[in-house]
């Protein structure tokens, strides 16, 4: 596995990041440890979790796995923002909740520091200065090495960057957005903003919850019962069958199967490799409920789609755009002519 620098930092991370959201929810403790071991054996050093994943259980499992290992060999990322209790201050990005959150995460992870501490989403109730100054203090205290954001819109991210810069505070090193062949609106502004400001991009859900795994194809009338999509439909999750059972999805999966056959790789490997070749992307976050799923996903590295194959996937997954994102507006900005 190759290694890349995270944004403008000197931090080297594996080009695939292991997402631990399933740990303690869909994946048992033993299977979680096996997945972590296999990821590391294949060169991975970048592991992403969050306090809210199974209300802390995911962090606990990562922490138990870390015991007895050389902590500095791994880049551990976690997040804060969402509710961890029923109290009025058990949610959000206030100074109170962030400090309580980082202290609890450190206990669960069994470590003295967090490599990458990310705000899980925007908080409209807390002044941005309060959030960013608190994160800056955590870095200065040595509890956190780098900070990042997840699920921000472009204006929110730019405002945060400007606020940190104006005050001389530690700035975000990366963004964790949803980005995959079925979610390309991330390209409208977020990716170009990250490139311009030097932020790494670590996309979550590179297979859109399983839609790009190869298990779903045109002509299906419902999802197999043993898939995440079937669970998503019952739970009302974003990747539900009723939301994605449409012509656009089947157009994308048709192209994905076509290209996967050409390169003799699985659809999942092909979809992740497409992400690996996006200029702004540092490390897609691969989640796995089973060791077999992880093994499949790891096969996305070590090779590259041809420009023609990338173009095939680009065309199939292209979203209709209007001003100010269309080509005419782009040309206007490039050459100054109407």
UniProtKB/TrEMBL annotation:
<dbReference type="Pfam" id="PF00248">
    <property type="entry name" value="Aldo_ket_red"/>
</dbReference>
<dbReference type="InterPro" id="IPR023210">
    <property type="entry name" value="NADP_OxRdtase_dom"/>
</dbReference>
<feature type="domain" description="NADP-dependent oxidoreductase">
    <location>
        <begin position="15"/>
        <end position="316"/>
    </location>
</feature>
<keyword id="KW-0560">Oxidoreductase</keyword>
<protein>
    <submittedName>
        <fullName>Aldo/keto reductase</fullName>
    </submittedName>
</protein>
<dbReference type="InterPro" id="IPR020471">
    <property type="entry name" value="AKR"/>
</dbReference>
<dbReference type="InterPro" id="IPR050523">
    <property type="entry name" value="AKR_Detox_Biosynth"/>
</dbReference>
<dbReference type="InterPro" id="IPR036812">
    <property type="entry name" value="NAD(P)_OxRdtase_dom_sf"/>
</dbReference>
